[in-house]
């Protein structure tokens, strides 16, 4: 999705050009873009049998949808479980945890 947002619209070959090496196979990216379209994230315009894809969902909406799925799938729909995981795995520093607590307390006021 990031490549499509960056390019604003792209054929499969354009998307592949903007990916890091090693480049994935053309069919892999074509299938991925088709699946993203089926899920309602992309749409396309057809030019003589070639599809130029463009995003129909913004980054923020995509992020919210993605994070809801992650939260539900891996953390039993619990923000506490998610934050506890990152704390236990030391993926978040004590300073960052304090900042999160401040943000939560501020929002409750």
UniProtKB/TrEMBL annotation:
InterPro entries recorded: BlaI_family (IPR005650), WH-like_DNA-bd_sf (IPR036388), WH_DNA-bd_sf (IPR036390)
Highest taxon in the source lineage: Bacteria
SUPFAM superfamilies: Winged helix' DNA-binding domain
Keywords, comma-separated and alphabetical: DNA-binding, Transcription, Transcription regulation
Gene Ontology molecular function: DNA binding
Cross-referenced Pfam families: Penicillinase_R
Any single biological process term in GO: negative regulation of DNA-templated transcription
Assigned protein family: Belongs to the BlaI transcriptional regulatory family.
Protein name according to UniProt: Putative transcriptional regulator
Organism whose genome encodes this protein: Chitinophaga polysaccharea
